[in-house]
Design goal:
By secondary structure, the chain is of the alpha/beta class. It has one domain: TIM Barrel (Alpha-Beta Barrel), CATH 3.20.20.140. The protein is built from 9 helices and 9 strands. A 7-stranded parallel beta sheet has the order 1-2-3-6-7-8-9.
């Protein structure tokens, strides 16, 4: 059993349920045997120009309030990390060194491509081939970013958010094995951790997709390159937390990953 989940959203994320509180997640985590929880609410560094209107109020500094809040909570013996999910929007990283003052770690996405015109360039439109190229280019670019040391791992890699599995499969049809290998090599060279995102992976557990899919081939290629993984539910509400974790055993089997492929030992925790 993988005993961590470091991609959890609370009410502090604009897309999170307003009743998603750390204390309730901790209770649920205790029930299912987790030992480490990482809260990774959305954030954009207000020192960096270019935030969307959605991101502007979601600063890293606002997350500082969690430090006082967690002191008042019975953590049930669970190791609690106060992280953040930053943003990589059309090759602009919304994270600076100052963001580390307010977090134990930072995760970076490249695939919030439902944010058209902000993350996904306008010229990509609804063209699945251009969408696929953006996923490849942005992943490789993020792996090699000059500020790579500011973030621990990449969340929901190669999985375009906000798309139905049929649409994801169409986009993925333009991603070759050679492209996948290039991405896996970039991840290995950067020593970045990669997320098995349960909210994404469960799309590929359905009968029509579980035998072969690009998401699986990508994860397998990264594993062969020696990359390490971490687990994230990407839960946005308490009621979804246990439900999402129920998919973990099947996701590991279908994706060909083992518990030994997962580690958060190298997690950057500047304030721990």
């Amino acid at each position: 059993m993988i005993k961590h989940d470091i991609h959890i959203h609370t009410h502090l994320s604009s897309c999170g349920d307003r009743f998603a509180f750390m204390a309730d997640y901790i209770k649920e985590a205790k029930k299912i045997g987790l030992e480490t929880l990482g809260f990774a609410d959305h954030a954009w560094d207000d020192n960096i120009e270019g935030a969307s209107d959605w991101y502007k109020p979601q600063t890293f500094k606002r997350l500082e309030q969690r430090r006082e809040e967690i002191k008042q909570i019975d953590t049930e013996g669970i190791n609690i990390l106060l992280g953040a999910e930053g943003e990589y929007a059309n090759m602009l990283l919304g994270i600076s060194e100052e963001a580390l003052e307010y977090t134990d770690y930072i995760l970076a996405p490249h695939s919030h491509t439902h944010m058209k015109g902000f993350v996904l360039p306008d010229e990509c439109g609804d063209n699945p081939e251009k969408h696929a190229k953006y996923l490849i280019d942005s992943f490789i670019s993020l792996c090699g970013h000059k500020k790579r040391d500011l973030f621990f791992g990449i969340v929901h890699p190669m999985c375009p958010i906000g798309k139905h599995v049929i649409e994801i499969t169409e986009i993925h049809s333009f991603i070759s094995d050679e492209m996948i290998l290039e991405c896996a090599q970039a991840a290995r060279e950067s020593n970045v951790a990669l997320e098995l995102n349960i909210s994404c992976a469960r799309n590929f557990l359905k009968p029509d997709y579980r035998e072969d899919n690009v998401y699986k081939r990508f994860l397998q290629a990264c594993k062969k390159q020696g990359c390490k993984f971490f687990l994230g539910s990407d839960s946005h509400e308490i009621n979804a937390f246990d439900y999402l974790h129920s998919f973990v055993p099947d996701a590991l089997e279908v994706m060909g990953l083992e518990e030994s492929d997962f580690t958060i030992e190298a997690l950057r925790k500047p304030n721990a």
